[in-house]
Write a structure and sequence with these properties.
single chain; 142 residues; mainly alpha; 6 helices; rod-shaped
């Protein structure tokens, strides 16, 4: 097998030779003032784009969550207010908290309840996120 040798690619040297000295003297102070603004705008735009991508990827399908949660309603109530003594209300609970609790029940990790473990075992991560979104969106009554 023959090896090919390529010459390294190099960028032309950066030079201000083509820019008139007067233009440079006028532009330098403005660039010093603008550089921090441009950097902060760039950083802010990156954060906004990243959060938009993250939130759209994690938006639950509440209708699918309601359908999948029908079996949950026997104990936790149709409106998320428990109908069985000793069973927690789920209406208005934090979505991330609910999702993590279901994942913990599914794996029988951290939370040990045979009934909840059996209910959570067949749930996919998407099902869990949807169910958590459904209960989170219900109005918690005082």
């Amino acid at each position: 097998m023959t090896q090919m040798h390529c010459a390294p690619i190099s960028a032309p040297p950066v030079s201000n030779a083509d820019v008139p000295p007067r233009a440079l003297s006028i532009m330098r102070p403005q660039m010093r003032l603008l550089a921090p603004v441009l950097i902060s705008w760039s950083a802010a735009a990156s954060v906004v784009l990243l959060s938009a991508q993250t939130s759209s990827a994690q938006m639950p399908d509440v209708a699918a969550g309601r359908k999948r949660a029908e079996v949950c309603m026997a104990c936790h109530g149709e409106n998320g207010r428990a109908v069985v003594p000793g069973v927690p209300h789920l209406a208005g609970q934090n979505r991330d908290y609910l999702a993590q609790a279901l994942r913990d029940y599914r794996l029988a990790r951290e939370r040990h309840n045979p009934t909840m473990t059996e209910m959570a075992k067949p749930l996919s991560d998407v099902d869990i996120d949807n169910i958590a979104g459904f209960f989170h969106g219900l109005r918690a009554e005082k």
